[in-house]
Amino acid sequence: MGLPRRAGDAAELRKSLKPLLEKRRRARINQSLSQLKGLILPLLGRENSNCSKLEKADVLEMTVRFLQELPASSWPTAAPRE
C-alpha cells in the first residue's frame, strides 16, 4: 500500500483503518481494566474468583471509592513547577 495520492484516497484510508484503531483502543482499555481489577481486589480484601463477573463500571467505581477513602497523607505531593 503506497501513500495516498489524492484527498479522497486519504479519507478512504482513514475510513478503512478506523475499525482496526477502535479495536486496538478497546483492547487497551480492557487490558488496563483487567490490571486495575487485579490490583484493587486484593486491596479491598476480595478474592478474584468471587469477583470474576464484575462489570467494568464496578471496577472503576471500586477504585474511585478506594482512592477517595485513602488518607490525604498517603498521597504523594507533586513537585513544584518552575
UniProtKB/TrEMBL annotation:
Entries under PROSITE patterns matching the protein: BHLH
GO cellular component, one term: nucleus
Subcellular localization(s) per the UniProt record: Nucleus
Signal peptide positions (record): none
Keywords: DNA-binding, Nucleus, Repressor, Transcription, Transcription regulation
Main location: nucleus
Database matches in SUPFAM superfamilies: HLH, helix-loop-helix DNA-binding domain (SSF47459)
Top-rank taxon, per record: Eukaryota
Gene Ontology molecular-function annotations: DNA binding; protein dimerization activity
Cited Pfam families: HLH
BHLH domain span: 13-70
Protein name: HES2 isoform 3
Organism listed in the record: Pan troglodytes
